[in-house]
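Lab notebook, design round three. We kept the backbone fixed and only want residue identities now. Task for the bench partner: fill in a sequence for the structure below.
Input structure tokens:
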């Protein structure tokens, strides 16, 4: 990583990119041809002439030559330590989709056939995080959420979600070795497994939330695994599985009412303590219970904590309306929709599968939709995520293509910035916001989403520093 001298009194920019397209993704969708960066922040966006005066002797000038600058990508649900330990394997890639569906180990990583943990030592945990960091920098990703790390996983099968992983993050951050901004959801319980009200509340009360530089490493809140996934008949739903069952909650409790009450109490407690809650909820009944609990929590104390539903496979239009009213977000993986729809259809019927993951309805309802990879369930390639989301949403009239692309790009930039409570300073390219950006080989607005995966990522900048630069073919 290049380091520049930030104490320099030189008023000129450290980095200028010009001669291309700059998609700011600000409220007005302003576009420019050039952008200037100083002290880790955006100094100016405009025409090439607008940034000319910011170019000094020490400014690095990148000639875009028609290439495009977009805000840095925020993969808002990405298990980086696990990804780094597994790559180049992914859960889907390893087993191959299309034969009734892979054993999705996000549903139960303890069910993996591998007996030895993927990482066991401090060095291996550091290496896994750094390895994922290198990979995601090459994909233009400048922020991510590590969704679920905590003491309940200290003896976990993979070793990738333990409290020691958080300690490795703290250490890497203190060494300034992270190349992406990291938000962490704490986990009190087992990944994709049960949790108890007592373990949750006592863990949350003892949680050390302060980090040295929260813009780089932040404990955002807490993850709750409310239910499993529909293809494994674990989602709690109003529909019926072939055996007549309807799924259930993962939260401990003597009966369903007590489990639901405990989920409710967990959400109220987290809200009271000022923690964001990300709830892994796939069944419509689980989502309804989550939304009802968030409504009660906000009625008790209205806070801008940006609680959100993760996955949300069977979310109903009514739940989406309510989520919009409550300011709740939805974190969804388009690739999981595309890859598991047939599998879902085989257990709950074609019509349920066709109505699942209603991305368009969410947009109409005004829910802030963050798109993510859930890597290493899927590879962390947001370009494929955009193509998958577009395929899932279906054809769009020719006149609306540009709006579709912009909306999908927002799912990886401005929407997750909102999830992070960080929209005042990241997610779009505006003066004084963080200089987190990604340079694409071509302007995405001249492409269909299906073409996007072929477009190379040329440059990734985080906090004004270049963390990835594609080598020209001759030098590779
Ligand atoms: Zn996940």
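Proposed sequence:
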């Amino acid at each position: 990583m290049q380091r520049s001298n930030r104490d320099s009194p030189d008023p000129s920019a450290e980095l200028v990119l010009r001669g291309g397209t700059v998609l700011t993704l600000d409220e007005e969708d302003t576009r420019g041809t050039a952008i200037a960066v100083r002290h880790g922040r955006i100094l100016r966006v405009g025409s090439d002439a607008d940034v000319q005066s910011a170019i000094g002797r020490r400014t690095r000038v990148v000639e875009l030559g028609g290439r495009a600058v977009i805000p840095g990508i925020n993969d808002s649900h990405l298990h980086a330590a696990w990804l780094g330990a597994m790559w180049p394997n992914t859960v889907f890639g390893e087993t191959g989709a299309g034969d009734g569906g892979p054993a999705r180990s996000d549903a139960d990583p303890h069910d993996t056939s591998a007996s030895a943990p993927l990482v066991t030592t401090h060095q291996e945990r550091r290496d896994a995080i750094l390895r994922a960091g290198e990979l995601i920098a090459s994909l233009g990703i400048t922020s991510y959420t590590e969704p679920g790390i905590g003491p309940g996983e200290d003896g976990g099968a993979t070793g990738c979600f333990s409290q020691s992983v958080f300690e490795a993050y703290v250490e890497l951050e203190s060494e300034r070795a992270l190349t992406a901004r990291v938000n962490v959801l704490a986990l009190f319980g087992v990944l994709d497994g049960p949790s108890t009200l007592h373990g949750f509340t006592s863990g949350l009360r003892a949680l050390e939330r302060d980090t040295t530089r929260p813009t780089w490493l932040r404990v955002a809140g807490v993850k709750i695994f409310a239910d499993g996934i529909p293809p494994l008949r674990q989602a709690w739903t109003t529909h019926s599985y072939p055996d007549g069952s309807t799924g259930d909650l993962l939260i401990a409790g003597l009966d369903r009412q007590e489990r639901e009450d405990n989920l409710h109490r967990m959400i109220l407690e987290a809200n009271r303590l000022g923690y964001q809650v990300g709830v892994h909820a796939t069944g419509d009944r689980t989502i309804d219970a989550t939304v009802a609990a968030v409504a009660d929590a906000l009625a008790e104390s209205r806070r801008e904590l940006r609680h959100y539903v993760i996955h949300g496979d069977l979310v109903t239009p009514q739940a989406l309306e309510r989520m919009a009213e409550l300011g709740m977000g939805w974190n969804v993986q388009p690739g999981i929709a595309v890859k598991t729809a047939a599998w879902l259809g085989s257990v709950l019927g074609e019509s349920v599968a066709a109505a699942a993951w209603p991305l368009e309805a969410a947009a109409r309802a005004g829910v802030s939709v963050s798109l993510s990879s859930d890597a290493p369930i899927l590879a962390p390639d947001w370009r494929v995520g955009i193509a998958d989301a577009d395929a899932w949403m279906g054809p769009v009239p020719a006149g609306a293509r540009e709006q579709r692309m912009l909306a999908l790009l927002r799912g990886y930039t401005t929407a997750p910035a909102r999830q992070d409570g960080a929209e005042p300073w990241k997610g779009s390219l505006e003066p004084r916001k963080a200089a987190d950006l990604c340079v694409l080989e071509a302007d995405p607005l001249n492409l269909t989403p299906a073409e996007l995966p072929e477009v190379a990522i040329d440059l990734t900048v985080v906090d004004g520093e270049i963390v990835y630069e594609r080598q020209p073919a001759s030098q590779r």
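Keep this in mind before ordering anything: The chain has a mean pLDDT of 93.
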